[in-house]
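Dear Dr. H.,

I hope your travels went smoothly. While you were away I took the liberty of generating a structure for the chain from your last submission, since the lab meeting agenda had it listed for discussion. I wanted you to have the full record in hand beforehand rather than looking at slides cold. The sequence, exactly as received, is reproduced here:
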Amino acid sequence: MAGRLDGKVALITGGASGIGEGTVRRFVAEGARCVIADIQPDPLAALAAELGDAVRIAGADVTVEADIAAAVDLAVAAFGHLDVMFNNAGIVGATGTLVDTTVEAWDATIAVLLRGVFLGTKHAARVMVPQGSGVILSMSSTAGVMGGLGPHAYTAAKHAVIGLTRSAASELAQFGIRVNAIGAGNIVTPMTAAVITGDPGATDTTHTMIEAMSPLRRAGVPADIAAAAVYLASDDSLYVSGHCLMVDAAQTTGPAPSMFSQGEAGMLREAGRRGL
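The corresponding predicted structure, in token form, is as follows:
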């Protein structure tokens, strides 16, 4: 049976662990060949050894333009073209109050979470425009559509990722290139575990805690984001561009459940009057 990504070539940043690793595994299972870009040499090497000829690896810092350009060039050189760019790499970044946040910490956070997305989008477009096709995906967050769900710099960057996604979609549509984002909710990864418990290895505890606060009473896992990425990367979404697909168990839809959907059914009218 053919995979949904048969024949496609993808470059996934931050692909050696967490959501990125889960997406690499799903893409390969769906028939894609992948370049895995990351700054973690040991997980990169281990994943490449496991997945074999379907992948290539690139030691890449997403804040360094030459690294991203080289990773894109590697995809083209190794596999002949580039069909999907997934700007996934991320960090939590600067934490603390606005008053206490240093400019250095702010700039370093924005460099990874926003400049990295810009560079990935720029260099993917460099090769996709001449070929007249392609998909660019970028990782946003629930913090990209609501305040108070992440640190200040993280929230600003994730909002900006959605803005850049829409702007790039507007420019690149004429070349047959679709540009979308994924708004991830609470996903069980070592990075999330470090935030919630202070221990990146405490993924079981993190799973239990996320499950308890999820509107769906289910913890999000990397496979959930990978499934969304497969949809947006595949021909199933040929008419979708400029969109941020929220994968968050309805976290950003509002209080769950609403006070107005509970209790006795009826009709409320002006000045507290009831009934039809």
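Two observations you may find useful: The longest strand covers residues 134-141. Residues 188-218 form one domain.

With kind regards,
E. W.
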